[in-house]
Amino acid sequence: MINNIKFLWYTKEEVVRLSEKEVKVAASLDKFGHPVPDGMYDLAMGPCDSDQVCKTCSLDCLQCPGHFGHIPIQPVINPLCYEMLFLILRASCSNCFKLKVSQNEKLNFYLELEQCETNLRTTKAETFQEFEEILVGGERRNGHCEEEHHSVALTWLRKASTRGRCPLCNGTNKKYKKGANMRILCDDPMDGLVTVGNRDVMKDVNATYANDKVIFDKLLKIGDDEKGGIGFLFLEVLPVTPNKFRPIKKRDGFVFENATNAQLNSILTASLLSERDEKYSAELQSLVSLYFDSARDQKQQGIKQLLEKKEGLFRQNIMGKRVNYSARSVISPDPWIGTGEIGVPLVFANQLTFPERVNSTNLKKMQELVTGGPCAYPGANFVLEKTDSQQKLLSLKVLSKSRRRQIAARFATSRCEFTVYRHLVTGDRVLVNRQPSLHKMSMMGHRVRVLKNEKTLRMHYVNCKPYNADFDGDEMNIHFPQSHAAQAEIEEVCLTDFNFLVPSTNEPIRGLTQDHLVVAAVMTSKNEIYDRDEYHHIVHSALYEEVDGPLVFVDPFLTVSDGESRRVFYSGLNVVSTVLVNVTKGLPTSLTHRFKSKITGETVIFRESEMLTGLLDKNTLGTAVNSLIHVCGKLFGYKICNRLLTIFGRMVNGYMALRGFTLGHDDLLLDEEGEKRLQNELLVRNRRSRVESENKSNIQVLLRETNGALSGLQGLLASSMQKSFLGNNILAMVQSGAKGSMVNVSQISICLGQQELEGKRVPAQASGKSLACFEADEYFTSPAAGGFVYERFLTGLSPGSFYFHCMAGREGLIDTAVKTANSGYLQRCLVKHLEGTTICYDGTVRNHRRIVQFEYDGDADPGASVGVLAAQSIGEPSTQMTLNTFHLAGVAGKNMTLGIPRLREIVMVASKNIKTPIIKMAVDEKMGMKLEQVFRRVTASDCVGQLWAEEQFVKERNAVADGFVKRVVVTFRILDEEGAVVHAIDNLFVSKLNRMIKVKSTSCGIEMNEQDEQVHETKKEENSDDESTDVDDTTVDGETETNKTPLSESGDSDSSESEHSHGSSNLIHLRMTKSGLYSLEINFQPTMTQNILPLAEAVLSKIVIREIPGFAGGKMDTTRPNHPGPATFYLDGSNFTTLFNITLISNNPDVFYNSYSNDIHSICGHFGIEAARNVIVAEIESVFDVYGIRIETRHLDLVADYLTRDGLYQAFNRQSFDMDDSILQRMSFESCFERVKDASLFRLSDNMNNPSANICVGNMIHNGTGCFDLLYDLDI
C-alpha cells in the first residue's frame, strides 16, 4: 500500500541509468518497414510488432513490459520551469551573481520559509545572532502550509526582480524579457533586444545558486541528498518511452510510425544542428516546448494534451480502472422477479467466479463443483493450489474429468491450501450499477437469480427510479465481489433493503409504479369481487415465496347459499388483508394506520393488518411519503419494504393473469354534453377570422378568454367522459398516480392548447407570419396563428398544428441535451471538492485535517461520506431543472436568474457580480411609496411621451452620391425633466444612435465603409451649454436625497465621455418647435437602410437621467395587497453602502439590518461570513423550490460550511483548491499539467488521504468501511 508520493526531478544521470538505449539516429523505420538500429524503434526498447523479440529481455510483444531509451540534446530550458527560471534570472544580480536582496532580508526570507514549513513562531531578525536564536530556540508546532510557502517564495523573488540595482554590490543589472517560444531576451543599450543563449543562462543561474545555495535549497525544498541542485531548470537529455507506447500503425499494407516519433526525430535533428551552429538552439527550444505542450500547433499532440481532458491518460486510464469479474448487458423488465433481485443470464454465471476456500464445511460441495468443471452448471473454472513456497493456478477447462476428480480428491488428503473459483449461483450478492452514477442509489447490492434461458439482465420496475433507468435499450453493469468480507458488506450495507430512502430528501425512492398502481386501484375497487378459486390464486401468486408455513386466510365478505351449495366471495380488501396478516405474522406489532386516497381523497383505514376501507394507489404503494410501504418500514424495519413491494407486485400480477387490463378507444371519448361544450366554448373561437380591432393588445384578451375556456373544460374533464371513474381506464391511470396527468388526457380528448417557445407564443418571422399557411395579419387576430392548437390527438392534427407541436418538442430536447452537460459538470465540481469530507470518530466533519463542521446535523456514523452525499443531493436534482429564469412578480417585471445558471453563480463561480442582484426589505406601505420615489430610475424614454421620425432625400453641398443625403427628422414630445432630457439628447443621442446603427448593420452581415458608419453632427445654433443638466435634489416628504447620478448610462463607460461629434459640412439641428416638442435633424449617407424609429426608442431607454448609484430602481411587492403586516420592498441592486447613506434608510436602522440580498459577496462584506453562509443555504433552497424540489437542510449546511471554510466565500472550482490539498486529487479534476508543474517545482508530497489519490495508485479509500480494518479468520 502506497502511503506517500513525492514529486521530484530525475537528474541527467538517473535518466541515462534508467535507459536501455541511446537514440542517435533521427529515423524510425527503413524503406522495408524494419526498425532502424539506434533509431526511435530500436528493439532494445521493446518489440514493436507481433513477430519481433525484445533485445533487452528476450520476450515477445505481449510479455515484454517495454524499456526506456534517451536522446542526448543540447541544453534547453525545461518547459515546466520556464516561469521560475525567468523569475530567478531577473531576481539575480548579473554582476555578483547573488539574489538582489540584502543580507538582513535574506535572514528574514529564510525565517518566513521556515515558518511556512514548521509553523515557527518568529519575528524579524536584524542580525545573524538574532536569526540563530530564533531558528534554534523558536517555538514550533506541527503542520505546514504549502500555499503560504508558495506565496512567500514568489513574493520575495518578485520583489528582488523589480530592483534595478543590487543592494549587495550596487551594480546595474541587465534587463531581461520573455521572448517567443520560451526564449529569454536581454535589452542591450547598444544592440536592443538580443536572445540570450541557453548555455549563458545556465551558467549565470548556476553561479547564483552556488552563491546562495542555502536560500535556494530552502526556497525550492532541495534536500541534502539531492545532487542535481537546480539542474532541473534545464534539460540535457530527453527520455524516450518504450516502443509499445508508441505503436506503429498498419493500413493497406503500409506501415506508419507514431506521431510522437516525428516530434522526437525533429528534436534530435535540431539538437545535432545546434551542436554545430548556435543559431539552431532557438528552434530546438521551440520543438522541446511543443513536445511538452502543443497548444500552439494543433496538428501535434504534446504531453499536456495526452494527459488532460476527459479522454486524456490521467482520467481515462489512471482514474478510470478496467475491472475483472464484471458483466454488462441490456436490461429487461421482469415483474415476477423479487425487487431485491437481479436476473443474471447463464452465460454470465458460467464466466463470473468466486474464490471459495476449501474447508471442512464445504468440502463435499467443492469436490462436486470441481468434478463438474466449467461445462457443467454449477461448476468451477479454476483451482488455486497454494503451498508455503509457491502457488499454482489450474485451469479446469483443459483438464479431463478424471483429472478433475483426482484434484478434488486431494482436497481431503493434501496439506496444501485450495481455493476453488466456483460459478456465480443464485443467492450470491453482486453490485449493480447504471451510469451516470448521479447518487448513492445508482449502485446497490442485489441478490442473484440465475436465469438459464435468458440473454439480458432482468430487473423489477421498482428499481427504475433509483437507477434512473428504463427499458428502451439501457445497459447496466454488475460487479461480483471477490471476498467474503465484500459479500458481507453488500449484505449489511449496500443491499436494496437499506436504500429505500433517498439521502437528499430522506423520502422514499422505491415504490410500485405504472401498471401495478392502476391495477391495484381497480382490483381494490368495490366493483371487483372474487370467488374462492380466484382469491386463492391471487393470494398464492403474492405469497408463494415469501411466507413459511401454512397461510392464514381471512373471512369472506359475502356468503351466498343456494340450496345445498354454498358460495363465498371475497373483495379486494380481503385479498390485501390476507397478504398483510401473513406478512406481519410473528412480528411484535401489527399495522394500524390511516392514509388518504389519491383517487377519491377518502380515508384508507388499516387496523391490525387488515384493510377496512379505501383503494390502493400511489399514496399507499407508490413513492409517496408515509405510504403503506413507508409506514411499514418505520414500524418493522426497512428490510420489510422489499418484501412488501415484491408481494404486492406479484399480487397485482396474479390479478392481471385472471382479468387483464387494457385501454380502449371508448376510454378516450367525451360524452355528448362534453362534445357540445367543446364546440361551443372553445372551437368556435378558432372560427373567428379577425378580432374586433387591429390593436395588438386585443389578441392577448382573446388568448386569455381561450385559455380560460380550455381550463374550464379541463376542470370538468373527468365528469365529461363517456366512461367515468375507475370504469375509464385512462382516467384510472391518471387518478391512481400510475402514469400521466389530466393535461395528457386533455391533449388527447380536448385539444393540445398553446404551444410555447421559451415561455412565449410561437414568434412571427420577418414576413409577419409564424408559418407560411397563415396570413400576415392573422398573427395578431387569431390564436391559432401564434401556436394555439385547437386539434386533439384523438382526431388528428393539421400540418400546421403538427409543426407547432414539433417546435415545442424540439425545444425540450435541446434544453435537455444542453442542461445534461452543465448539470453534470456542476456535480463533478461538487464531488471533487467534497469527496474526502467524512464524519470522524469524534463526531466532527473533516476534509482531511481541516474541520468543516463540529457536529453533523444527521445520522453521525463514523466514516460516512457525507460530503459526497451532499454533492449528490444537489447535483442529481439539478438534472430536473429546465428553466433559466423565473419571473418575480411585483418587481417591475424583473426576471430573476434561476436554474443551472443561478447554481453556477453560487457554487461554481462565487460571482461578485451576479446577473440579477436584489435587496429585500420589510417596510410599511407609506415607507414603501417613499422608497419607490427615492429609487426611481428615470430614463429619457420615461420622459418622452411621443416619438416619430420622417425621412427624405435632400441635396446638400459637398455631399457624396450626386449631392444627396438622407435627412431624418426625429421629433420628441418631452413631458418631464425637460432641461435634463434636452441636454442628454443633445450630448448622447446621436453618438449612441450611430453606434447602434453600426452594431445592427454588422449583425445583419452588412459591411459599412467609413462614410456609412459616420453620422456627422454639429452643435445646434442656440447655446445649449447654458441649460444645466444637473437635477435639483429630489425631496420626498421633507427627505432630501443628494446622491443622484444625472446623465449617466448604467454599465456604459462612454457615459462620462463628451461624445460630441462635429462635422464641417453636414448639420444637425435640435430645435424646439413648440412647448415640449423638439425635433432633431440628422443627415445620413443615402446608403443607410436602417429603420430609425425603433433604434431611437432603444437609445432613449439607455440614456439615464437620474438614478441612485448601484441601483436600477425599486418596487413594492404587489402580489399580496391585503396581506397583514409589513410589505416586501425589492431593490434592483445590492450596494449596501449606498443604501445606508439614504436618509430614509439610515433613520430606520431596523429596516436596514433586517434586509436580505441574494448577492452573497455583498452580504459577506457588510454583515459577515456567518450571514453569507445563511444566505448560501437560503439561495440554494430557493433555486430548487421553484421546481418543487426539496433538499434536506443538513446537506445544504455542509455545502455552505465548506464554501465558507476559510472565512471567505470561495467557489467549487480549481482555483479554490489549496496547495495543501491532495495533488493527485487536483490533477484528476482539471489542469493536470499545471498541477504537475507546481508539485514538481516545489517538491510537494501527497499523503494519500483523498479518495481520488488512493484510486490513482490502487489503494483502498479511507471513507466508509475503508476507514477501519476488519479482523476475521476463514480458518475458524
From TrEMBL:
Keyword Transferase included in the entry's annotation: yes
Biased composition (Basic and acidic residues): 1013-1022
Homology family: Belongs to the RNA polymerase beta' chain family.
Organism: Enterospora canceri
Swiss-Prot/TrEMBL catalytic activity: RNA(n) + a ribonucleoside 5'-triphosphate = RNA(n+1) + diphosphate
SUPFAM superfamilies attached to this UniProt entry: beta and beta-prime subunits of DNA dependent RNA-polymerase
Any single GO BP term: DNA-templated transcription
Native organism taxonomy: Eukaryota, Fungi, Fungi incertae sedis, Microsporidia, Enterocytozoonidae
Protein name: DNA-directed RNA polymerase subunit
Top-level taxon of origin: Eukaryota
Annotated spans, Disordered: 1008-1066
The protein's Enzyme Commission number: 2.7.7.6
